[in-house]
Amino acid sequence: MKAKAVIVILMALFAAPAVGSGMTVGSGPALGGSGATVAVGSGMTTAIGSGLSVTCYSGLTVAVGKVPGDWDSPYDLPPTTALQIPVTALLQYQRVKTTRGSAFAPFRKYGLRPIAAHDANVKLWGYHVAIDTTRTTVAQPYRRFSHHDLYSFAVIDGVQPDSPAMYVFWWKGYYRHFAAQLRQMGFRMSNVAGQTNVLRFSRSDVNVIVDFIIWDDIYVMRIK
């Protein structure tokens, strides 16, 4: 009797379809409870809760029962349409540009595309953004962009070697992600005198400064 039960179990296991790339798992009830995690493979789409599906990157653990933007760790960017940009790549780009006069921009590698700037002093890159020609943005050039969704991202890159690069975004998760990486690298945060909405990250042995300009509707990371 026990042997038959074992055979039935083995047959059920081998008959079950393997979860592979591009498959959908769990179209019914939510997978796990609030705060549970599900490890997924490359390109797999996992149905989480009622009608919500999340396309996942290789090896990333998805938090189930949470909404985008509510993540336990600042390193765990949501695997939907958020850009996966390490702050180290942006710091390295600025350092090379400053010391050598020019550098290869890494932005395309992370999903951004060039945008016509109509300004010889800057180069623009964007992800899910467009240029809003109705806005006057001389004082705040980062407001020239209109964003399409929560994970939109834009770059204003000065062409001169000593000009800063500004990274524009609307989601607080990007700020948490970059700030956490900077702290791990030994950068210390401080306030800037006379600028209450600016947080500065710096290291005494590094000649690169990172400023976060924080408004109620937009974030700007300026690397100089």
Structural features, described:
With 224 residues, the protein is α+β, with helices and mostly antiparallel strands. It folds into two domains: 2-63, no CATH class; 87-223, no CATH class. Helices cover 18% and strands 29% of the residues. The chain contains three helices and 15 strands. It has helices at residues 2-15, 87-100, 172-184; strands at 24-25, 37-39, 45-48, 52-55, 61-63, 113-115, 122-127, 129-131, 145-147, 153-158, 165-169, 188-192, 195-202, 210-214, 219-223. The strands form four sheets. An eight-stranded antiparallel β-sheet has the order 6-7-10-11-15-14-13-12. It has a three-stranded mixed β-sheet with strand order 1-3-4, with no helix packed on it. A two-stranded antiparallel sheet has the order 2-5. A hairpin with a 6-residue loop joins strand 6 and strand 7. The longest helix is centred in the N-terminal third of the chain and has 14 residues, at 2-15. The radius of gyration is 22 Å and the shape is globular. The N and C termini lie far apart (74 Å). 22% of the residues are buried. Mean pLDDT is 74; it is low at 5-76. Keywords: Signal. Residues 1-20 form the signal peptide.
Question: Which secondary structure elements does this structure contain, and how are they paired or packed?
Answer:
Blueprint: H1 2-15, E1 24-25, E2 37-39, E3 45-48, E4 52-55, E5 61-63, H2 87-100, E6 113-115, E7 122-127, E8 129-131, E9 145-147, E10 153-158, E11 165-169, H3 172-184, E12 188-192, E13 195-202, E14 210-214, E15 219-223
Parallel strand pairs: 1-3
Antiparallel strand pairs: 2-5, 3-4, 6-7, 7-10, 8-9, 10-11, 11-15, 12-13, 13-14, 14-15
